[in-house]
Write a structure and sequence with these properties.
Ubiquitin-like (UB roll), alpha+beta, five-stranded mixed β-sheet, 5 strands, single chain, 3 helices
């Protein structure tokens, strides 16, 4: 039986890889830059799909809100700048309201695509 240690520096996050559903639920460290967040998301993707050579190219935050008729809407904020504290701000402000939802777009490197091609025989 595993003992899980509570980490106050981590938030529960729902991660959608390439818009896939259902989301994967993980604890993400909240004191991190965009580069660090992408690194964490890459590690999670490798654990889910150990043969997958795709890497996280972009991250969007899904901010939920309730409209005037009670419907839930999502607005997306693309995280773009590693120099700013965008990620830290999102986790500290919106993490208090509820779970964090992230869209991670995965891309494959050209080298991996070229390696998987079947070359014509002469």
């Amino acid at each position: 039986m595993k003992n899980y240690v509570f980490d106050p520096n981590a938030k529960l996050a729902a991660i959608y890889y390439n818009g896939g559903k259902p989301p994967h639920m993980f604890r993400i460290h909240n004191d991190v830059t965009l580069f660090g967040l992408k690194s964490q998301l890459n590690q999670i993707n490798l654990e889910l799909n150990y043969r997958d050579t795709q890497r996280v190219n972009g991250v969007e935050y899904r901010r939920s809100s309730i409209d005037s008729v009670g419907g839930v809407r999502f607005s997306r904020m693309k995280l773009m700048n590693d120099d700013d504290d965008d990620v830290r701000a999102i986790f500290s402000i919106f993490g208090q309201i509820g779970q964090i939802e992230l869209d991670a777009s995965l891309v494959r490197f050209v080298e991996h695509i070229q390696q998987s091609l079947i070359h014509p025989r002469n």
